[in-house]
Amino acid sequence: MSKVKVGVAGYGVIGNRLAAGVVAQDDMELVGVADVAPTLPVRALKERGMPFPLFAAVPGAEQGLEAAGIPVSGSFDDLLGEVDIMLDAAPGGIGAKNKVKYVAAGVKAVFQGGESGEVADVFFHGTVNYEKGLGVDYLKLTSCNTTGLIRAVHAVHASVGVVKTFITIIRRVADPGDTHRGLTNVLEVEPIPNHQAVDLMSIMPDIDATGMLIHTPVTHGHIITLSVTPKQKISVEAALEAFGNYPRIKVVKISEGFNSNSSLFQWARYMEYPRADMFEIGLWEEMVGHSGDDLLFAINIPQESVTIPETIDAVRAAMEMHATGAEAVAATDGFLGI
Amino acid sequence: MSKVKVGVAGYGVIGNRLAAGVVAQDDMELVGVADVAPTLPVRALKERGMPFPLFAAVPGAEQGLEAAGIPVSGSFDDLLGEVDIMLDAAPGGIGAKNKVKYVAAGVKAVFQGGESGEVADVFFHGTVNYEKGLGVDYLKLTSCNTTGLIRAVHAVHASVGVVKTFITIIRRVADPGDTHRGLTNVLEVEPIPNHQAVDLMSIMPDIDATGMLIHTPVTHGHIITLSVTPKQKISVEAALEAFGNYPRIKVVKISEGFNSNSSLFQWARYMEYPRADMFEIGLWEEMVGHSGDDLLFAINIPQESVTIPETIDAVRAAMEMHATGAEAVAATDGFLGI
Amino acid sequence: MSKVKVGVAGYGVIGNRLAAGVVAQDDMELVGVADVAPTLPVRALKERGMPFPLFAAVPGAEQGLEAAGIPVSGSFDDLLGEVDIMLDAAPGGIGAKNKVKYVAAGVKAVFQGGESGEVADVFFHGTVNYEKGLGVDYLKLTSCNTTGLIRAVHAVHASVGVVKTFITIIRRVADPGDTHRGLTNVLEVEPIPNHQAVDLMSIMPDIDATGMLIHTPVTHGHIITLSVTPKQKISVEAALEAFGNYPRIKVVKISEGFNSNSSLFQWARYMEYPRADMFEIGLWEEMVGHSGDDLLFAINIPQESVTIPETIDAVRAAMEMHATGAEAVAATDGFLGI
Amino acid sequence: MSKVKVGVAGYGVIGNRLAAGVVAQDDMELVGVADVAPTLPVRALKERGMPFPLFAAVPGAEQGLEAAGIPVSGSFDDLLGEVDIMLDAAPGGIGAKNKVKYVAAGVKAVFQGGESGEVADVFFHGTVNYEKGLGVDYLKLTSCNTTGLIRAVHAVHASVGVVKTFITIIRRVADPGDTHRGLTNVLEVEPIPNHQAVDLMSIMPDIDATGMLIHTPVTHGHIITLSVTPKQKISVEAALEAFGNYPRIKVVKISEGFNSNSSLFQWARYMEYPRADMFEIGLWEEMVGHSGDDLLFAINIPQESVTIPETIDAVRAAMEMHATGAEAVAATDGFLGI
To answer: Do C274 and B272 touch (CB under 8 A)?
Structure first.
């Protein structure tokens, strides 16, 4: 079978991880990536010897790139001419503009959670609604928090059914190295309703989800606490088994040293994972418990990399590479080494 | 009526606020405070002209204090000889040792939440169980988080009854200026059960409380999110009315600029409150909502000053200054200007 | 003598402190302050009972203010009609627009450091070039860092002369409560030359000043380290004497508990200074030393309040209230209680 | 030639990087590492399939390790029986105790900067005094800050000679994931003299070095600003050439995106360096300048990994693998891919 030809628009925090994720898939070929300026990730690509080609994301961008010594392999249209599907990780709002070009070029596309919902035909999550994405041209992922959240809630839902959930998102406010946004010594609050809870309901419409969000001045992962009202009570042991068997959830123990969001980042460093990236959400064994019949637990969301597997699942769905989500997820995870 | 004579042991973060709080009460007299070393608060006391006397908290401490130019008015025993009741804000564990002296001197005492439960006959909260403290010799306050938490939960409980509650404490990890502890770019988690929830149940035993706690690298107030299962559903409007009428709760609006824990600290600065202290917990109007019939809300705990009112209530109970909690709380708050 | 009538434009971080500073001056009268919206400081003014009147800083602003329950006493023109001089603490760039109105109304004005240099006839610093401001209509202060820096460098200059200085500004990146800017887990650098060093030279043109600036994720004060090349070597003792005798410098000891920028903020809280404001820069005794003949030392800049005294000095200069800077500074500081 | 057999004591932040560094050297063999408990790095070693064996660092430690499922290959004495030289990265103070065992076993050792000076015969820095370490049994490295600092100062010294230097260390206070220490919203100062400056003089005794140190709440690298008084003035261009030609210094541009300490950490991630480690110090091109004839510049110290190259150089010196430092450094860096 010939490989599916994939391009990536935007080579930033998400785009550079999508590119690496596609490279790891034996049944996909990364045709190239597109960006507009010689940012640090682009410069690192050059320093690494251009393992895959770079295209100018907008007309004229090649000038600034080449002035910085970055080889440019062609225009955005050139890239679109060679691919089956684009993974769009351009800044929010640009994806909608890019979509016009994708439609014109007859290529499919997968958008990230920051893009507005209208760009896509389906709001997609690999382990929950893969089948909805089958053969669809334009898919949109959920955001990093929602993607991880859905994994954990769906693990319970698939086991005993979920009626409602209350979540508190303790949000990391910036990524490492980010100097364009940040908070200093502040916990910032937001009014309810919370968009991550709303987005969860768009993927799992039979669940009543409500959330609160507090921004915190850290960079290594969001933490979410959850109270889940199940259709029938589930024991801690059964819940841990459900979480442990669910894809892309790593059950960890505080007693073994996983005592923070940063401990999971450090784990990725000690494991020598590229870019210190985790694809799994962390779930703390010692924080699983009950409030009445409600199941309580807490998860960690590695914001830079958590959506990579589900995005690759989306390629599999859009290109109809597998009939079921289970097969798609297994393929994605196998190649990613999860 | 003669004033109740009060002493304070430990003139640190809590002790210096207790002293100021007692000074503000027209029906109490601050006999003096005791400490062991010329710390910044002690030096500031001197710089302010010794508005009340300082005693050496342990034998020999007068030497270091006087070497630093701080006038010392006598020994700890001298202080105990002049007071009716001591407010013990010594570091955790010291209070238990001090209690031996209190018993020997025949003085009553109120301990802070950091002290072990055995030092006290009653675990006390001014607005909930004032009557239990009436005439009792040794009372212990709840911790800062628990004190504020109980106010908010009790507001609902007094209105419609509370069955259970799930809380997530997003804890500030250090006070301003603290260089002895701290976290840097970390959200640190803890196993459940959470001691604040356990402590809440010791004051309100008919409520099932479970909690999670995440330490965050900030200094200006804890934030707690709560899901409260009421005995009968309560509307947002009714809940806001209950909160607004409850003592020591300040309902604030994000839309008016109260968008963080620090905004409440700033409010105290703009109001020119001494030491930028708030005695009320903040409660965000736009974060009150529902998950099914459960009531959701979020509060802010000003950790340095929140327990001051309830500690002064404890003096009123121990000294039998008022028959009811309502009268005691009204007196305390009137003098504090809340 | 009749009091000088002063108005304040902008009631934010600086403006609310300027207003309080003017209120404290027995020979000045605060006619009122102007702002555009019901911000937290404006709401606190209302809550405090409007100790001085508020004016609408732009036409129409009274609507939003009054909708928030804030009494408005008139228009900006009304305010200008009653004052001798305006202290302009409007956001950067607005001051230049306001100046047109000041000129039209025939009132003098003092601008803050964030405003562009062209608005003013003189770049002013109370303790260094007071005489240059005598009778001048439009004065501009230096920024918070530069204002504090000049005090310390001038203390040495007035004693033994200064040839050159190299400064490293370790800048606090946001004020407490600020959610509009911030850094998280980053030390951000800037290219040289550094504008604070350039500004220092505009006030003290015979000194060669070069600087570096690193932004740090904290809120309680900038720290600046300095290497000063004197015209003749000065001993540590002589330097400490010069610093101790200079206005608005507080020499502090690490060994006494002043071990951080935040310790000075805490000192202001323990001293019960309004808003926890310090007017003095801190200078650490144990950090004064030598590199060859160069004098080394480090200072702390309380960014929210440090420019208040020099701004009030500027009123004294512009209104020719005193013939010399020494008299003006003594008057300002006496009323401020420094 | 047979490979030099190396062991590592302590598999923590430094030890796990030393182990990886030794593995990368074709002329060395990592016999194994020793630790006392199943920490995260040790658990990751297991998860990675034990690429090299682990020994129990103290008698009995094997029990806790094996209970955690970590295979243990023997005792510390077993490890010492197989190696030529040990790299001691045990916590400060343990190295001195370990030295008794090294002497008894007749193995050489290299200690890290945290160990007291008495454990070693020579205070070592690969690019400055390699020859002093030739054939020596017990060497001690400088600390992370000093190691990086010496590279930069020596680059100037080797070019035009250095008379004196004044440094300001803006210190990251904790490593990523560290919950045992940290600062929150504080810049903490220290009295002079500064130990890093003193240590620099112990390696380069003809230079007068003085320093100040400010602890900052960040994790991704120290920043040091320097003023260096050269024997003869050196231009910015010549200085940049000297820095660029010196081993283990990476000259970077703010204009290319290297605008912070974290940007260098991010660079390592984008380059997919294992554990996101940099071995070079960063030096900002746009921050090189002059104060009179003094040369000014600023460097970034990647605290977790900066000492790895010099430690491996120390093995080369102690084992007399190369006659000159230049050869040793070239070999180390070649294998490390610097």
So the answer is: yes
